[in-house]
Amino acid sequence: xxxxxxxxxxxxxxxxxxxxxxxxxxxxxxxxxxxxxxxxxxxxxxxxxxxxxxxxxxxxxxxxxxxxxxxxxxxxxxxxxxxxxxxxxxxxxxxxxxxxxxxxxxxxxxxxxxxxxxxxxxxxxxxxxxxxxxxxxxxxxxxxxxxxxxxxxxxxxxxxxxxxxxxxxxxxxxxxxxxxxxxxxxxxxxxxxxxxxxxxxxxxxxxxxxxxxxxxxxxxxxxxxxxxxxxxxxxxxxxxxxxxxxxxxxxxxxxxxxxxxxxxxxxxxxxxxxxxxxxxxxxxxxxxxxxxxxxxxxxxxxxxxxxxxxxxxxxxxxxxxxxxxxxxxxxxxxxxxxxxxxxxxxxxxxxxxxxxxxxxxxxxxxxxxxxxxxxxxxxxxxxxxxxxxxxxxxxxxxxxxxxxxxxxxxxxxxxxxxxxxxxxxxxxxxxxxxxxxxxxxxxxxxxxxxxxxxxxxxxxxxxxxxxxxxxxxxxxxxxxxxxxxxxxxxxxxxxxxxxxxxxxxxxxxxxxxxxxxxxx
Length: 520
Ligand SMILES: Nc1ncnc2c1ncn2[C@@H]1O[C@H](COP(=O)(O)OP(=O)(O)OP(=O)(O)O)[C@@H](O)[C@H]1O
Ligand SMILES: [Mg+2]
Description:
about 525 residues; alpha/beta; Beta-Lactamase; Rossmann fold; Helicase, Ruva Protein, domain 3; 4 domains; 6-stranded mixed β-sheet; 5-stranded parallel β-sheet; 19 strands; binds adenosine-5'-triphosphate; binds magnesium ion
């Protein structure tokens, strides 16, 4: 997403705006893709042109302007009008405005709006109309009179200079935005070069939380311990269970997965432990239970939090002693299985409330693996999107589709309550919807995603903060790693990172990466 607040403080942009203002008494503002005014703080900002100030000081005025910009730009875009901008009267204000759409990668990102002037000559009619309009906004008559004296016609010979300057403001936004994003891309590339893992079996992710999970998986690869995998729906618990099995010495034996909430008590019983012929109606022959099938392999107990008290007792016995009794049998049987369990519930608090056996809890919670929700590792979203796009393309035997930048940004802003599964479904839906279309654009996204951005501007800001933190952390890691690798050769590392030596030294200080401290 374009960070309008940032651009407002860029020197060239400020300068251009102030020239436009001084020469023609015209105000220049930004609006986002929906026409919302962006990039200035109303409490602090003063417009010099009173005809603009009196309207934009009012909520109603800002809303009307948004609506005007939104509909005008929409008409402009669908019409096959040539040119980069349009100049027309803002009917609610009675004066004219010039609208310049900002387009990036073929996607409409927002606009630069210059307003508070009359194209060509000023007539008494125009002035009177404007006064009426300002009056309708509840502007005081003395202010209206003052506004009328300070609104000027834009002469034909000035018009081309004016549009060039406003266009330049828009171009600056595009250039700077592109620069910022390419810097981010560069960081990502460097990231790969540094050998950060972004994949573990079928698991994708390069965020810090995922790196931690990979490291833990490496550690427990050869262990026989029971692992409890906890995480929200769709975070990849089953994927992790499989990764544990397929990287363990048991990998050539069976991996059995059973959802503990899927069956009623009796069926689950016979499913897990098997039964002997005649033990209940329908038991026409002996049947092996899943525990026996998993012998020497791994048993994954999914949704362990949903098991009944009596089932908990039976599970405890298999885990503790490796023995169980098939339904209807009299003798115990013995198996050698490694147990993995998963749940999206808070087992600990269930134990405290007496809903889950404490002894079973401690038995399965030997190693605890918490899978973070997607919203805590948003930096993995672009990677996951690419992965799922690849996947869809292969499955459908199509060319891989392209997600536009803005669509990706919308995906980034969304909190993903259904986590990776929800993201995966969204991508699959997009690919189907797109049909022959190669580009996946923001307007194709599910309504809940599009609406979210509108309702949660504050949340958006927070996400931005997180991104900054993440980038800083990454930068710190890269520098630390690089210093070690190059034997503290700052000139060499600075070159590698594409920054100046002085810049690197400043960063080393900022992050406290002093040699003496690091070697301690
Ligand atoms: N890190 C990841 N990389 C790629 N795909 C993933 C990742 N995590 C999850 N997925 C995919 O998301 C979907 C959901 O994953 P999985 O079934 O393992 O989640 P879960 O935590 O067991 O969900 P639930 O709680 O709903 O049972 C699967 O299609 C899985 O392949
Ligand atoms: Mg699952």
